[in-house]
Amino acid sequence: MRLFLLSFFSAVFFFADAQTCAIDSNNFELLSPVNDSLPCVYRGEPYSAIINLFAPPEIGGTVIDSIIVTSFFGYPSGMSYSCNPSTCSITGFSWACINISGVTTDTVGSYEIGYTGYVRTNTGTFTFDDLQGFGFLPVYILDVIEYGDACKGVVSKVEKNSHIAGLTISPNPSTGLIAANWEQTDFASSTITITNMLGAVIFQKEQQPGFLQQTNIDLQHLNQGVYFLRISSKMGDVVKKIAIK
């Protein structure tokens, strides 16, 4: 299942002025990045970000008939999305793009962009809700900031050259008891921070230098929902989503 999912979903984001997007037929990257923040939104300013998707004809004998995106939601008010093709449906070995755009004056903070849809294959139909429960589909965060503030939410640009490799959170989803594991290549102290969807800090801990790092965190007092674990040092940040059930 993981190989199948890693083979049909690729996303690349950039700023644009148009309300529709041009399909990038040169895009063959497979689910890269896995989890990422969209470019930040400046309150009161026009915004546009594009997601490019590629579906191979088959993976490991699993034939992809079509991938259909049925909705995007969770973005701030004043934002909307459009697809190319307009049906938001692509067959095996084809491309599509989705443009999230608009102007918002909503509160500064982080907004998780949700999406629904399904994948038709020769072995059955899988909904995005089915697949997201396993953590295989990407999570996109849209940070709304004031004009002139620095955008700190683009995870992939940090992660590719990060001091941290192989960050895992387990179990995830969880009931609140989690373990974070990673390799640290710069041997500097790190700060572990957990925030809610609005960016409020609910946990913070200093981690001493070391190569193989692990920390256990008790979040059983939190309500069910989505939170974000960030590991920061002088070399950059890495962020992972945490689901509390």
Could you explain how this protein is built, in words?
It contains three helices and 18 strands. With 245 residues, the chain is mainly β. It has two domains: 144 residues, Sandwich (Immunoglobulin-like), CATH 2.60.40.10; 84 residues, Immunoglobulin-like, CATH 2.60.40. The strands form four sheets. Strands 1, 2, 4, 5, 7, 9, 10 and 11 form an eight-stranded mixed beta sheet that branches. A four-stranded antiparallel beta sheet has the order 15-14-17-18. It is globular, with a radius of gyration of 18 Å. The N terminus is likely disordered.
Keywords:
245 residues, mainly beta, eight-stranded mixed β-sheet, disordered N terminus, 3 helices, 2 domains, Immunoglobulin-like
Quick description:
The chain is mainly beta and 245 residues long. The chain has helices at 2-6, 128-132, 155-159; strands at residues 36-37, 41-42, 47-55, 58-59, 62-73, 79-84, 89-91, 94-102, 109-121, 124-127, 140-145, 164-170, 177-184, 190-195, 201-207, 212-218, 225-233, 236-244.
